[in-house]
Specification:
The chain is α+β, with helices and mostly antiparallel strands and 106 residues long. It has one domain: RRM (RNA recognition motif) domain (Alpha-Beta Plaits, 2-Layer Sandwich). The chain is 34% helix and 28% strand. A hairpin with a 2-residue loop joins strand 4 (70-74) and strand 5 (77-84). The longest helix has 13 residues, at 18-30. The model is unreliable at 92-102 (pLDDT under 50).
Length: 106
């Protein structure tokens, strides 16, 4: 299996937008112009306020993470995304002494 470079994207979209969120994220993060992204796969569970974006290159992942602000538009509503590496979340949770689930791609 190919190796992927994941990031987590969190946004305050409502459950009524669940059907369009995955598609909007896919289009947004594949666009070099909009997100500094590229070839990727979006994993999203309906009803969740976060998605995992898997990039095929660490350079693309770094480029997306270096962009200061990520905003998508759903039904004329601008939604600001919080974007970070899963390992960043693990380190925060580890230091707080909470149990952490690991994200492994191989």
């Amino acid at each position: 299996m190919d190796e992927y470079y994941p990031i987590i994207a969190e946004g305050d979209w409502g459950p009524e937008h669940a059907k369009s969120v995955k598609n909007k994220l896919q289009i947004y993060f594949q666009s070099k112009k909009k997100s500094q992204g590229g070839d990727c796969v979006v994993q999203y569970n309906d009803g969740s306020n976060s998605a995992t974006i898997l990039f095929k290159s660490s350079d693309i992942q770094d480029s997306v993470l270096s962009k200061a602000e990520h905003i998508i538009t759903i039904d004329n509503q601008k939604i600001k995304l919080k974007v970070y590496k899963p390992s960043d979340a693990e380190e925060q949770a580890d230091s707080a002494g909470q149990q952490v689930s690991r994200f492994v791609t191989k």
